[in-house]
């Protein structure tokens, strides 16, 4: 399994970026597509996840600080995940990683990076005023 994240860059406060992640190999249509981030000197933290909810239903989860600003989406046919980030803040500065799973995770475990086995190389998002 290989993950290729892209879309990061430098933006000003209030700007927007759209991150993309392409998954090669594996089967992840009935699992989670998640985004985590890691700022310098800090631990990796959960950002958002799209969790399979049966059939063609998926539920989205977000950390509180990005609710209303970020939107996660996925395309199972193209094996991609996206994170639309609007109204960016300086505290959003970090390396963003995508992480898929083959199976859905109970909502209580989504935010734990230990539940994810595959990680991409990350894409850097830098927000400045």
Structure in words:
The protein is mainly beta. The chain is built from no helices and ten strands. The protein has strands at 2-6, 9-12, 17-24, 32-38, 45-52, 58-62, 70-75, 80-85, 94-100, 123-128. The strands form two sheets. Strands 2-10-9-4-5-6 form a six-stranded mixed beta sheet, with no helix packed on it. The protein starts with a strand and ends with a strand.
Oligomer: single chain
> What's the overall average pLDDT, rounded?
95
Distance from N terminus to C terminus (CA atoms, Å) equals 37 Å
Strand order of the largest sheet: 2-10-9-4-5-6
Number of strands: 10
Q: Give the uncertain stretches in residue-range form.
A: none
Largest sheet: 6 strands, mixed
């Amino acid at each position: 399994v290989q993950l290729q994240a892209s879309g990061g860059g430098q933006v000003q406060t209030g700007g927007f970026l759209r991150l993309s992640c392409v998954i090669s190999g594996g089967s992840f249509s009935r699992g989670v597509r998640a985004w985590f981030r890691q700022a310098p000197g800090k631990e990796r933290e959960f950002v958002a996840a799209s969790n399979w909810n049966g059939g063609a239903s998926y539920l989205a989860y977000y950390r509180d600080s990005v609710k209303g600003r970020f939107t996660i989406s996925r395309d199972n046919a193209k094996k991609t995940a996206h994170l639309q980030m609007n109204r960016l803040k300086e505290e959003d500065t970090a390396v963003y990683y995508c992480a898929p799973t083959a199976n859905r995770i109970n909502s209580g475990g989504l935010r734990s990076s230990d539940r994810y086995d595959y990680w991409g190389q990350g894409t850097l998002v830098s927000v400045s005023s």
